[in-house]
Write a structure and sequence with these properties.
With 178 residues, this protein is α+β, with helices and mostly antiparallel strands. It is 25% helix and 33% strand. α1 crosses α2. This is N-acetyltransferase domain-containing protein.
Length: 178
């Protein structure tokens, strides 16, 4: 089923930088997202980031660029994105990006808004490339990334095992900002 894309409604959804006070809600949201779709690397219950883990991430003690954006609706987080740089000097020019939106809110322009704001932020930093990986079946995300200039840079064949017992490719994508 293809999701219809609507323009982002800034009166309904509020995008902002995550704060330490969002840690518990981010932990809850991540668990929910893992259970709603198989687009993520994890099976539900694997590699859980609890409130304390998010609190540590959000304290900003890292020496690499790291930005988490959240989307609120009626006081509840419904989506987030994270863009994280690398600590090794050979890779300090790039960052990894990931996004998650509650299934009930797909098609509302949330992913587009998160990606737009992330790219705008990256352009003010030393980062020259954003990279990400996406499962081949996540057509909506792939189209979103392509609309923003991301290109497929490779594939990891039969990389992910889903609950249907089949293996799927991981698509590697990148956006050059130089």
């Amino acid at each position: 089923m293809q999701t219809t894309h609507r323009p982002f409604d800034a009166d309904t959804y509020h995008v902002r930088c995550a704060t330490v006070s969002d840690a518990a809600e981010l932990a809850r949201l991540r668990v929910q997202l893992d259970a709603e779709t198989e687009h993520f690397d994890r099976f539900p219950g694997e590699a859980v980031l609890d409130e304390e883990a998010f609190r540590t991430i959000l304290t900003g003690s890292s020496t690499v660029p790291d930005r988490i954006l959240v989307v609120e609706r009626s006081g509840q987080l419904v989506a987030y994105s994270r863009c994280t740089g690398f600590s090794l000097r050979r890779f300090a020019h790039k960052a990894e990006f990931g996004i998650g939106v509650q299934k009930d809110h797909w098609g509302q322009g949330i992913g587009n808004q998160l990606l737009t704001q992330t790219i705008d932020w990256v352009k003010t930093s030393e980062i020259k490339k954003i990279q990400l990986s996406v499962i081949e079946t996540n057509h909506g995300a792939i189209r979103l990334y392509q609309r923003h200039g991301f290109q497929e840079e490779g594939r990891l064949r039969h990389d992910r095992l889903l609950q249907d017992g089949c293996y799927y490719d991981t698509v590697l994508m990148g956006l050059q900002l130089i």
